[in-house]
Queue: 4 jobs
Job 1
Amino acid sequence: MKDVLATIHAVRRPGLLIRAARIGAAQYRRTNHLIRLIGAMPPASSGAALDQLIELEAEIDSQRKNEQAEYSPARHVEILIAMMGEARLFREARHP
């Protein structure tokens, strides 16, 4: 398994998106957020969820960069919130 935390740490996005996501991450609820974003029951592990979220975030960031009409800043922030929340759970599971 690739190091998902290193992948997330390497993500560079506009400051406003990151600040909004950090604020929202305090309210992160795994089941609610992942069902809305992934469209199915959340994966059992945070690592698997992070893999899916990284793919979703890359797609939506591509929409942002290409100025596509379907880009939604709100959805982008939701995905970043979930990534931050899952990363926190992943770290806690590895180092209780």
Job 2
Amino acid sequence: MAAWDDLTGQADAIAIFRAAAARPGIDSPESAGASAESASMTHAWLITGPPGSGRSNLAFAFATALLSPGTPEGDEATHRQVNARTHPDLTVLSTEGVIIKMGTVKEVVARSQYSPSMSRYRVIVVEDADRMVERTSNVLLKALEEPPERTVWILCAPSEADLLPTIRSRVRSVRLRVPSVDDVAALLVKRNGVDAETAERAARQAQSHIGMAQRLATNADARDRRDETLRAALGIRGVSQAVTTAARLLAIAGDDAKAFTEEQDAAERAGVLRSLGVEPGGNIPPGLRGQLKALEDDQKRRATRGLRDGIDRILVDLASLYRDVMMVQLGRESTVINRELLPELRTASTSCTAAQSVATLDAIAISRQRIESNVAPALALEAMLVTAIRR
């Protein structure tokens, strides 16, 4: 199985990374400023692209190619180790919280100084590099300024603008495009074995976001929550309904986040108890409770991020809804995303003007910015939904 088999819609980016992985060694640090089309191999890369475009998948495929002995296609054993994040020469820097902590970055920077133990390179993948505050980014900057000879950094972020200019000047950027609905649907059929109709609907409703499309294709509850969200928004007729709908959307986001993390939390807790020698259902010795408390704190931070991400997904879905209303108003029904709601969209299009639909889309964008700036989600949603009132 080649390292690139699970990727879709990114042929140009794959060609760049495949050519770089085939190079015998790393070029000088100055090569980071070369054009993305260059086949040279540099010590630091930045993969950018919209959410769901496959940034992390491409980063780990590149890591597999770099860590595999003798072939840029990636051998099966290395592929399994990278997927399990157990390869001795692979380090992954990520967070399930809102930001990446400085202490975590310092640990990874220290580890980057080690020579690889069994591969050509030591590879460090930084997922969500945009989640570092400036002072944390400066710690990473120092590692990029004086890179070890055989260490390769692979950073992932939505856009170059999300990182400090000093970091951008020391990495080679490769931007991903949004894969087509057909590409994502084909991937779902191949990877998850879903039928073509379900795959197409999930890819379309997820707007080509690979991770969300997979969830919609394989999880009926997720599909039901999305449908309830859109129908609730279409039914707003007054301020009181806007307020109650905002509360309901928060509850849906909470249910979605809980469903996403509950199974993972239970597995983590069971794993920790097992490693500590505590039988299921047994009493936890006082001396071990601190370790469980640390795990619970991490899970709470993940739940906070999960809720925020869930709210953002709802806002993205609402943006697709009101974009569809505007398309119907402009006579462009063939471009509608939520085709299953076409009768309701036609009714909604008669109760407002295209200008009002644009105003609601602007309100959704502002709401996303406010929540990102730590405005109370309930207030941000209420203010946005008031603009969605249709008589």
Job 3
Amino acid sequence: MTNTNTNVLISGAGIAGLTLAFWLRRHGFAPTVVERAPAIRAGGYKVDVRGAALTVAERMGLLDELRARRTGVRSGTVVNAAGKRVASMDGDTFGGRVHGDAEVLRGDLHRLLFERTDAEYLFGDSITGLTQTADGVEVAFDSGLVRTFDLVIGADGLHSATRALAFGPEERFVRDLGHRIAIFGVPNHLGLDREEVTYIGPGRTTLAYSVDGDADAKAMFLFRSEEADVPRGRAAQEQALAAAYAGEGWEVPRLLDGMAAAPDFYFDAVAQVRMDGWSSGRVALLGDAAYCASPASGQGTSLALVGAYVLAGELAAAGGDHEAGFAAYEREMRPFAERNQELGPANLKRMVMRTAGAVRMSMAMLGLMGRMPGRERIMAKVIAPIHAAATAIALKEY
């Protein structure tokens, strides 16, 4: 089938945007990717590729290389405020990985995708205006450039500028789950060797991990917040994080000491995106911009890979007819996205304990489970909902 509407602008060179560019080119489209950053982002925190996303990676011919770049995290340990080990397990069980799931650094996955993608790139720029006509979309860029494309796809994350321009303000679609998350690199003063350590306090959880080939470590902070808004600016965010963890035990003060010098500091709300529709005329949304499941779901990367594959495939199957292609994309993806979104709130309840009593009970249960002969079966039941959600779509051959 001959494609129409072949010139497609993708906003965002993240995992969703790069994967979409790959598959659009494979199906005969001409993708252009605009990215605010000056280049593909390196490093980053670790992410999981699970279930149906592994099939997408295999069909892209990168599964072997993806697995070769696994983080190599060997174990996960939960400690108390004194640093005493409460429970330990292997890294894959701790991370809820089964059946060949791959944990990699986000930057490594970015690089693998970028190297396989034939597209025009507009780095250091962003979309500032969209004007739809019967024949295309006139796009204004921050650089002053104005160009017309057949279709525009917003793959620009939770705080999508494309979504705001085409669908309305963020507050209509972003649902705060009442938690905040911060991640940044720190010196490996704990001497971690491809391992992850978690400390749980009332209303706040901290973990540190090291990966294969990296002398430093990453620290992650996940905590409950009653604040309606996320502080703006790094200084205010650092202050909010320090205040949330004031007086906390274990190695938390020392990890926070590394915050000011971290070049990769990240702070945001734990939130989801809920929308009645993912397209408006010639503009559609992909990945976190359309159906963010939150970092607590552990499924953002997999949703990005699968969503991009389905969107490109359905546009190709429809011959580039954007109305038919966008509608088919949503029919295929919405049940899968919603199933994975359910993981976010459920996982938060396990990851962040509300009270000191809940923390004590959790620590007691973890300690007991570590000594039980049937602990593998117990963990299998914990992991089962993650695997079920990750495989809750039958991928077509486009």
Job 4
Amino acid sequence: MHFLSSVVTVLSSMALLASSYPTSFDIRDIPTTQLDDFKFWVQYAAATYCPNNYVAPDGYKPNCPVGNCPDVESADTTIKLSFSDDTITDTAGFVAVDNTNKAIIVAFRGSYSVRNWITDVTFPHIDPGLCEGCQAELGFWTAWEVIRDQIQDQLKELTSQHHDYKIVVVGHSLGAAIASLAAADLRTKGYDAILYAYAAPRVANPALAQFITQQGNNYRFTHLDDPVPKLPLLSMDYVHISPEYYITAPDNATITDADVTVLEGEVNFNGNTGTGLPDVLAFHSHVWYFIHADACKGPGLPFR
């Protein structure tokens, strides 16, 4: 936490060159029927913070000892692949099959270890090979690339067994950043992946952001003045994928459809971007996304 505070404090002093990018002011409400989906899939993101789930054996039923994924626990779900600690980025999470909701889930954990925080602030661009002129954030792309082959092998097997199941890629914070790039990459491999990204930082330059936006099936959530979606800064040539589902309810509130506004465009000042520079004192907004998303995270900052 102290490390993140230092990073945000330094970055907040940099100029925000927002005028370099086009903005959009297209605003719309969500259909009420979508709200249950938003509240459900974040529970898989929450489950990735529980150590029992990201070190699980094949066939393990995911659960959250802190009680923030009850719908996941009640579903007929088993983890088929778990991963953590064996890559330079400590990319963690699991691949699971949910028979109740007919879904194959690829879920990524947010920041927990020192290696995760280093991944968060590895800001240089890298060409991910997804489209002409596309550039991704080096740390986030690396976090996906080191686990990609293992996940793709698992997806190949599972989709052959479950032809009618949808593929859902989900994560919170760092997990949402990895999920965003993973979903984009998997789509280029023929997988019709649906993305649920809660509290994602910016992952792409304008060309890549537009490419992912045009792929469709993206649900990217922000909450009030959460500082994490404001990083990396616009001045560093990073923008968001569109649309943004902007949650305006306070922390620990029951969210209704009236509390979620859909904002179009890679830069839109009607949402999280318009609440100012990243402020570490607003970090409380980062953990509340329909539920306390990282409540299962262990204490401290392990050097792993």
